[in-house]
Design brief:
mainly alpha, 22 helices, 2% strand, Four Helix Bundle (Hemerythrin (Met), subunit A), 4 domains, Helix Hairpins, 544 residues, three-stranded mixed beta sheet, 3 strands
Length: 544
């Protein structure tokens, strides 16, 4: 009998249909979102994403054709990246040297360069669009949508608005002046800065920093709210204390002005000598201790705490990115190994099968398939690279492919990736691992108990048949003995509980009487001696 594991995309947790905690009435419990980012939570989301098909835009391309061949070519991708980098440098040259309001009035060098960039980016977008087997799938690719928006704005700025200006009679010197059309063209030129964002696709380090900034948004916002509260309180305080002084007139004339002055003087530490000169001029030395207290609280505490929050979030994001890179490497390598070692039942390619959720549920890996995969040379190198012991993993194959009930288990491809990631030597054992081990051991012991009982009953029936004893006599006796053992164990437990309750009751009564005796001695003979109370406690414990 084979106990197949459920489809990862259709599994449901016991506490809720989607793994979310629920109360006794079945309603979802809304958990408060954590203020600070956690690396464990990010890694947990990565593990959940392992059971989903990996997104790759080339999966939507044609298998044959000129456009898809160009779009898949690494030279085309690297050349496009080079053009984008040169265009980013050209933006600074155009900003410094091109003073024309419109492209029509610019120098011919700038006209040729802008038209060349527009032609290249338009052709590159058309090649990628022609590579899609279903054209509607281009809207599923975020980078294609982003490039389409940039190319559309470039075409409007370079060709459409240029033709409109020529049709109206020329450039900025044709009498249009500072019209709305010219303002629109200036704004269109600013939009070219967004092309630099395309460089992020080839620089994962920048993506890590940007993801860290996004992840730290909530924690930074909370820290800034705390800082604004401190500024507001001290702004009111300095407004009241500096009233009627030169420092109050120059730096603290109002609450908002006081808050601004505290930011400049207390946090950025700019023009501190001027404010102290104003304080000495009127001898308003009552402001000095409050100023130092504000510097200690805002600049040294809150601002350094903000730096610590950012460092913590960036560290968590970097760990998550490192984990994601390892998962992607393991998945790519296992896809190649499984492609060589196993064929799908319908003859479909394994890599094509893994690109959809249905395919992830179709590809099943049995114990024999797992052994062939683990003995592959490329897979062995991968295991050593991710710090997994190949020999230990092969020795655990019987345990890995056995359920709690002792049946053989079948793995899906995401389960195989997760199994390899879980067997790394750098992993730390968690409470969940101990709980899973207890469940597995309990299930195996229960199965062993049932097997022993079945064998004992089988031998008993053979004895009954050989000695002509009525059938079921041994089984009745065995049940009677088990019932007696259970009753004796229950009685012993109840007796222990009763003995414990009586002991606690006696001890409470002794302490109460002892307290009454101490109070009585306090009233008659004065305060009781400490060693007498200690002796009484020892007598009570010895009596119990």
């Amino acid at each position: 009998m084979t106990a197949e594991k459920a489809d990862p995309s259709k599994t449901a947790a016991e506490d809720g249909g989607d793994g979310k905690p629920v109360d006794a009435n079945g309603k979802e419990i809304k958990m408060q979102k954590a203020t600070f980012a956690s690396a464990d939570d990010m890694k947990k989301k990565l593990r959940e994403n392992m059971h989903k098909p990996r997104y790759d835009v080339t999966n939507f391309y044609y298998e044959t054709g000129c456009c898809q061949a160009i779009a898949r070519n690494s030279f085309f991708e690297n050349f496009t990246l080079g053009v984008i980098s040169f265009n980013a440098l050209w933006l600074s040259i155009d900003t410094d040297l091109n003073s024309a309001a419109t492209l029509v009035d610019a120098h011919p060098v700038f006209i040729v360069a802008e038209n060349a960039f527009c032609v290249f980016f338009t052709g590159e977008l058309l090649v990628r669009f022609g590579s899609f087997a279903r054209k509607i799938n281009c809207m599923k690719d975020p980078w294609f949508c982003f490039d389409f928006l940039l190319v559309t704005m470039m075409v409007l700025e370079t060709w459409v608005l240029g033709l409109v200006m020529l049709a109206l009679g020329g450039g900025s010197g044709s009498g249009l002046g500072n019209s709305g059309l010219l303002k629109l063209m200036r704004l269109m030129r600013l939009s070219r800065m967004a092309r630099i964002a395309r460089l992020l696709r080839s620089m994962p380090e920048l993506l890590i920093l940007i993801k860290g900034m996004v992840a730290a948004t909530r924690s930074v916002f909370v820290t800034l709210i705390l800082l604004m509260g401190i500024l507001y309180v001290f702004g009111i305080m300095f407004r009241m204390l500096a009233e009627g002084t030169v420092a109050g007139e120059n730096f603290f004339p109002g609450v908002l002005s006081s808050m601004h002055s505290l930011v400049v003087l207390g946090i950025l530490h700019n023009d501190v000598a001027d404010v102290f000169a104003a304080i000495e001029e009127d001898s308003a030395y009552q402001l000095v201790p409050f100023y130092y207290f504000f510097v200690l609280l805002a600049a040294l505490t809150v601002m350094n705490m903000l730096i610590g929050v950012l460092c913590e979030v960036i560290t968590a994001v970097a760990e998550c990115e490192h984990e994601e890179i390892q998962i992607m490497n393991v998945r790519d390598c296992l896809e190649d190994v499984v492609e060589r070692q196993k064929k799908s039942q319908d003859g479909q390619s394994i890599k094509a099968l893994l690109q959809s959720e249905e395919g992830l549920g179709k590809l099943r890996i049995f114990k024999e398939d797992f052994l062939r995969i683990m003995t592959d040379e490329k897979c062995t190198d991968l295991l050593v690279q991710v710090k997994v012991d190949p020999f230990g993993l092969v020795e655990l194959v019987d345990t890995l492919f056995t359920t709690e009930d002792g049946d053989e288990k079948v793995l899906f491809f995401p389960d195989l990736v997760e199994l390899v990631m879980d067997q790394r030597s750098c992993n730390i054992a968690t409470v969940k691992d101990v709980t899973d081990l207890r469940k597995f051991v309990k299930g195996r012991l229960d199965k062993l108990d049932l097997s022993i009982k079945a064998q004992v009953l089988g031998m008993a029936r053979l004895v009954e048949r050989g000695l002509n004893i009525p059938r079921g006599t041994f089984e009745k006796e065995l049940r009677a003995v088990a019932d007696n053992c259970e009753q004796a164990a229950a009685a012993k437990t109840i007796q222990k509980m009763a003995r414990g309750r009586s002991a606690r009751k006696i001890l409470a009564e002794k302490r109460k009487s002892q307290k009454d005796d101490v109070n009585g001695r306090d009233k008659t003979d004065g305060e009781a001696k400490p060693w007498e109370v200690q002796d009484n406690d020892n007598d009570n414990k010895a009596q119990l």
